[in-house]
Amino acid sequence: MLHVAPMAAVTDRHFRMLIRCVSPLPTLWSEMTWDTVAIETVDAEALMGFSAAERPVVLQLGGSQPERLARAAALAVSRGYQHINLNCGCPAGTNEWRACYGARLMLDPRLVATPSRWARRRRPSVKCRLGVDGRDSYDGLVEFVRLVSGEGGVRVFIVHARVALLTLNAAANRTVPPLDHERVLRLAAAFPHLTFIINGGVTSLEQAAALIARGVRGAMIGRQSVTEPYLFARSAVLSGGGGAARSRREALDLYLTYASEAQAANWGGGHPVTLARALLAPISGLFHATESGSRWRRAVRAAMQERGRLRDCPIADSGGRAARRPPCGGTAALAARRTVARRGRK
Ligand SMILES: Cc1cc2nc3c(=O)[nH]c(=O)nc-3n(C[C@H](O)[C@H](O)[C@H](O)COP(=O)(O)O)c2cc1C
């Protein structure tokens, strides 16, 4: 029902794990992975590795060549991904067949239908826009879905409720083209046998619930997940379930335990400072909208600048520079930091 959108340079395994520490419910999405890179990488674990606790997790692929996509998808499935997605929404790429990817693929639905066939057995989904400049009518969108589902066998569509303007850069394409949720809802009503997940401008669970109540199967949240990762704490309410949500400090404690293990094992095998920064980055928004949210954010950012400490100390200790003056006057985060730091030194 709830999905955390794929975001390049954001939704790495650490960010996904933070969301998982907040809630077991939302489906997590990888950053887009190029088909070629997935096939040729010498370190598939660094590129596509994920922790079992992250499930359900979707791998998003970028590309357009059926053979390459098929190979990349097979590799992903062999690594344990249950769902594969094709990126048809990024407003980038060239119009040459070999390099074509993202929203440009919407200009020719058969380009999408053909690559989609490779993965029929792999339960592929397509993440697309309402259209692309020059092909952005509602009828064009219907034709896209009809062809990609009919010829390509795709059953799940994630629709970012904006047209992609290929003359604008990616960031502008998330703000300049107007949002049109109604068009996605109309599309979902026109294809009741298919699954639609709405994306774009969803910033609260209440808004997600209202859209789901109007006929889409789920809602995908992107930027607000970064600003406010704790928003997913009440996800159970959306599924009709109750139960107490984890507190921010419980989520932090869980995450710091994970981070300490990742650091001790030097996941990714890169520079320890780089890893430590990557592990700290996801928690900067954890106390958003609390009294001390901005102080926490600044403290995490400051901790990310302390090279020596990042290199030499357990992550919980470095991250704990922020927890040293715990938000909301609590001491639990500090206690968690000390516990985890002790564990990390053993
Ligand atoms: C930093 C950043 C990176 C993104 N990278 C991807 C990507 O790799 N693949 C993709 O399909 N969309 C990507 N997107 C788009 C988001 O998945 C989403 O469609 C968009 O942000 C609109 O949702 P929102 O309004 O909830 O943020 C990215 C967005 C941001 C902000």
From TrEMBL:
Record keywords: Flavoprotein, FMN, NADP, Nucleotide-binding, Oxidoreductase, RNA-binding, tRNA processing, tRNA-binding
Residues the entry annotates as binding FMN: P6, M7, A8, Q60, K127, H160, N199, G200, G201, G222, R223
CDD domains, sorted: DUS_like_FMN
Pfam families linked: Dus
EC number: 1.3.1.-
Biological function: Catalyzes the synthesis of dihydrouridine, a modified base found in the D-loop of most tRNAs.
Protein name: tRNA-dihydrouridine synthase
The organism of origin for this protein: Emiliania huxleyi (strain CCMP1516)
